[in-house]
Write a structure and sequence with these properties.
The protein is of the alpha+beta class. A seven-stranded antiparallel β-sheet has the order 1-2-3-5-4-7-10, covered by helices on one side. The longest helix is centred in the N-terminal third of the chain and has 20 residues.
Length: 161
């Protein structure tokens, strides 16, 4: 029993040391089974929309995190604007069953934004989110606080603030 505890403790220390060397976190990797499949599917969904310009800083079974953006599978019931939760200071939307939660002011290059979906602009009052066409012209804007349903195609760029 004591040998099992020591082996477990050694493994835990190895994981902690790896996390420190890697910058404080260890990203989950796709593994066989439902969780591995989910990670792969979520990351692919994120990359289809955000593109490969932005590199994720963390991938878990439930989220893909970029600097300024968290991508998750949209929970059931978040297909309507009333149910779309979005933290204060964030701009959130659901595109093709994937929830995007933007919280950093920068221009994001997007692809494959199609269909309709809910959005919530819960940034500080008066903050304007801009959605752009392929040529860089403004397609539409949203001034915080606002929520509704948007037509995503075609949105090529987004600036949350």
């Amino acid at each position: 029993m004591r040998e099992t505890v020591n082996t477990f403790r050694s493994a835990a220390l190895l994981v902690a040391a790896t996390a420190l060397v890697a910058g404080g976190s260890v990203a989950a990797t796709a593994a066989p089974g439902p969780d591995g499949t989910r990670v792969t599917a979520l990351r692919k969904a994120a990359e289809r929309v955000v593109g490969t310009d932005a590199k994720p800083r963390e991938v878990t079974a439930d989220a893909v995190r970029y600097d300024g953006l968290t991508v998750t599978a949209a929970p059931r019931g978040e297909a309507s604007t009333k149910a779309l939760s979005c933290g204060y200071g964030h701009l959130c939307m659901v595109v093709n069953g994937t929830k995007f939660d933007f919280y950093t002011c920068r221009t994001w290059k997007l692809s494959n934004w199609t269909g309709d979906g809910p959005f919530t602009n819960n940034q500080t009052p008066g903050t304007v989110a801009r959605f752009y066409n392929k040529d860089g012209s403004v397609r539409w804007t949203s001034t915080a606080y606002e929520s509704g349903t948007a037509t995503w195609d075609p949105i090529w760029y987004l600036r949350p603030c």
